Task: structure prediction
Amino acid sequence: MPGMKVHEYQARQLLAEAGVPVPASRVVETAEAATAAYNDIRGRVVVKAQVFAGGRGKAGFVKLCSDAAEVRAAADFMLRNRMVSPQTGPQGIAVKKLLIASAVDIAKEYYAAVVVDRGRRRPVVMVSREGGVEIEVVAKEKPEAIVKHWLHPHLGLLEFQLAQLVAALGITAKEQVAAARKVIRGLVDVFYKYDCSLAEINPLVCTASGEVMAIDAKMNFDDNAVFRHKRLQEMFDPSEENPMELRAKEHNLSYIALEGNIGCLVNGAGLAMSTMDIIKLHGGEPANFLDVGGSVTAEGAVEAFRIILSDHKVKGVLVNIFGGIAKCDTIAEALIAAAREIGFKVPVVVRLEGTNVERARTMLKEAAIEQLITAGDLTDAAKKVCAKVA
Ligand code: GDP
Ligand code: MN
Result:
C-alpha cells in the first residue's frame, strides 16, 4: 500500500526541481569517493546512509563531519555495518549508497508533509514546529502540535491555506515567510505532479543565517501511477526491494515478507488478512503471505510455492484457497507440480474450498504427497500448521 519508494537524494532532486532549497550534495558508493566528494564540498558536511528506512540519525547513520578523515571513517562504518533502526527489523539493512551533503547550522527544525487522507479522500498537508527525529512521538502525545489543512483534490493548495500553514510554523520574518511559502508550495507541487502517497520533509530547517531549507526528504508513490512517470521509473532501485517481493511482482503475485515462520499462500487480500488473524489466534506467526490473486495459472502458483519455500524462515506452510475465479483443481495441480519439482521439506497444510473442490481433493489424495496435510476447514488448518511449527 505505501507504494514505490525513492532514496533521500532522489527526493531532494525532485524537491530542488520544484524550487525547494536543499544543500549541495553528492552521492557515492565507496569511502574513497566519499572523501573525494568531501574535497569538492569542503567545510562541514553530513554523511547520510541512503536506505529505505528512517531513524538513521539515532542509529548512527547520519554523521556530521569536519574533515576528510572523519568522512572516510563515517563512510567506512556505514558501508560495512548493517543499519538497525525501529523501521528495519532486527536483521537491519545493508547500505550501498551514501549522501555527502553540505551541513547547515540549524536554528530551528520543523516538520512538513503531504499524505493521502483516505478517510477524507483527499491529500492533507501537515506542518509542525516540533520537527526533527521524533515526529511519531509528537503525533501520539501532542497531536495538537501538528496543524493540518486538507486539499481539494483538483484545486490543490489554496493561498489562504498556505498563509495559515506558514503562520502555524511561527515564521514571521518577511524573507523567511516567502521562503517557507516556496518550500510548502514546492512540496505540494511534487506531491501532485508525481502522484505521491507521501511527500515529507523532516526536518525542514531555518538556518542560523536565516535560510529555509529541506535537509531530509522522504517520498512514496502510488504504484498504480508509476507507469506514467518515466522519471520515477528511472529512479526505481530494485536492489533495495525485497528480492522475493520483486520475483513475485514479475509473476503478478503479491508477496509480503513478515517476521514469523508460517508461510501463507492465499488468493485475495481479504482472505490473506483473515488467514493471518486465525494463525495468530492459534499462537502462530506468519513468515509472509503470498496472494496469488483471482486469475492464477498453475505455473503462477508453482512459482508462488518456489518463492514461499525459498524463505528459510518458513517452517510450515498454510495454503488457504477459496476457489472462485481461481479453481481449486488449478491449485491442486500446482501443489502436485511443486511437490514433484522442489519437494516439500516442511509441512504444507492445505485448506481448499469452492469451485472444483471435490476434483482437487481427489487429485491430492491420489498424488499422495509427503508432508502434505489436508484440513477440513480454516480453523482446523490453522491449528494443524501451528502445531507443526511449534
Ligand atoms: P533520519 O534520522 O533518518 O530522519 O535522518 P535526518 O536526515 O532527518 O537526520 C537526523 C538529524 O540529524 C536531523 O534531525 C538533524 O538534527 C541532524 N542533521 C542532519 N543534517 C544536518 C545538518 O546539515 N546540520 C546539522 N547541524 N544537523 C543535521
Ligand atoms: Mn529525518
Remarks:
- The longest helix spans residues 174-193.
- The chain has a mean pLDDT of 93.
- Residues 54, 202, 216 surround manganese (II) ion (ligand 2) (CB under 6 Å).
